[in-house]
Amino acid sequence: MQNIDIALLHDDAGDRLAGLGRWWLDPVNGRITLSAVAASFFGTGRHPDCLARIEPDDRALVHATLDRIRKGDGGAECEFRVRTDGLGLRWLRLQQTGTSATGILVDVTAARQAAARERFNFALTQYLVGTDSIDDAVTGILQLVCEELGWEWGAFWALDDRTGTLRCRYAWQAPRQALAPFRAASARLAMAPGEGLIGTVWDSGEARWIEDASGTADLLRAEAARACGLQSAYFFPVTFVASDACLMRPGVLEFFSVQQRQPDAQLPGLAKSISAMIAQAVERMTQQERIRVRAQTDEMTGLANRAHFYDQVDRQCRDARAGQTFGVLFVDLDQFKPINDAFGHDAGNVVLTTFASRLRALAPPGWRIGRLGGDEFALLSAPGVTPQELERVAESVLDAARRRFVYGEHRLAVSASIGISTYPDHGGCTRELLHAADAAMYASKRNGRNLASRFSGDGAPADAGHRIGLLTDLHCAIRRGEFFLEYQPIRTTTDMDIAAVEALIRWRRPNGEIVPPNVFIPLAEQSRLIVDIGRWVVRQACHDLARLRAAGLGGVRVHVNMAAPEFIDAELPDRLTAIAAAAGVDPRGICLELTEGVVMKHADKSIAIMRELRRRGFGIGLDDFGMGYSSLSLLKNLPIGSLKIDRLFMAGVPYDRNDCAIVRSLLDLGRHMKLTVVAEGVETDAQLGYLRQFGCPLVQGWLPGRPVPLERLFDLIAQPQAA
To answer: In which domain of life is the source organism classified (predicted)?
Structure first.
């Protein structure tokens, strides 16, 4: 650093009036002499460390310029920043006169500030017009202010709508400044409007200047400011009056310096411009967001409208990764039109808005909900959804529709029909997925409403009318009393006594036609109707079991098949216990059979329900064992008492070596696990002899006995079949 001499005699009146300082450089010893005006630009009076006030980033430039002058180069000049005690950051221009080692020093701060204001206006315009988010713009503004005006810290405080407190949303600091304690204190701090310095500025709308941050009690971060050496600070609000005449307060900007600054520094002069431009941008973005939301939202319910919902499905189809799946639920309210007709559109609007609120409450995170028009709604699942989750949400939607809607003194009842489609199985675009879900929804309506159906492309168009007729009649079959039970004996292999019977449902249509179970059961399984049928079977079987007990046949158990939707219902144990109690029978006389698929697919739910049923005395049997679903590691933990060897494996016994090996293995497995084994599909004496040889205890099939009505069953039990 060159030595400095300060001379007070070299400024004439013209220089003083023009604000020109003079300097002289001794090329030999590098000593610089400043005039009084030039020395005043450094704000140091006669203090000898003028050049030490030059900003560190600019010192190399000044040294290089002075070196050129010492070497005799002409026309050297540069502009640099100095920090003054009273005037803050100043810009000075050092300019050589001719080729001599002398020249002038000019304070160009005003010009620099004017240029800075122009750059600010341009940069702010670029930031604020080029972004749709005020948060993105503010980060750039903080950096621009700090770098251009020499502040070490800038931050933006905004109101958190969830907590109602002001928090530091964004902050910027000079790279080489150690402000970690202050940053941490700012991140932790939250204050109510009117609390502390930030809260006061936000609440009052008035800017605030402080000269000693470490000694300002209402700063709330004074200790951290002292630890980081922060001194002067300036706070100003960002406010504007919206088109509806409401005062809007987006937030508060704050800036800190490690130097003692003066209130007339350039930042306060720019604050109004900065605030005004941010406010204009916020108002513009607010209006744009309002227009966007209005264009995408159903006005009545606040859900996504049809066009926006379709866009969301389009986007999810486009962004789906390979192997990723998601689902669409198409929901139509049943019996909605009669409410409009009877009570008017106001009542219908109450139903729609209330149902929309219920959908919002039940939708899992990441799901989208839309109103497609009228009483039609749709839900779009998050990517990666499982079929089980789709079913759970569909059940929740059905429950939300079933709950009464209150309109004045009236309690209005509706239900919902739901269609489910999945990507990519049922379509790769919005049109295909919505078409599939819509078709499944109409299947739900045809099946009696108040249920959810998955889309299925099975079934040729030629038999569609027949299927629809069957579904319509099936829905009415319970109410009309068209179902009845037959019982197939399960006999011991030793003496052919009837140890148990399996209840098998039959359906006789009004025209006298007997519909085979393999025809109507799959139709019922496509909807919740299978649950209603299952409950009827259990009630009727318990009633018939009571008749068997009354006839003195106390040793015979009744096996009842259970469908998957029944066996994952947590209320099943209570319901079955109540049915058995109403019929006056002991649960130990009932064995509930379920397939391997039900257990393995819903193991988390079904095993817990099985244990509870076993605790209450019900028997649990595994039907169709060996059909490929079983996991032996899971099987060992199942609370079952019996298993059935599927008839498929009995078909080749005793002549097919592979079938014989499988049957013997299953018999050994059941024996070692202390399970009662029942062989299904026994039709020949050769099969029966083979099973006796290898210790199978129970058999079922046409040879032991075909299904018969209850009255015929009494005769079979009274007249045992010959061994």
So the answer is: Bacteria
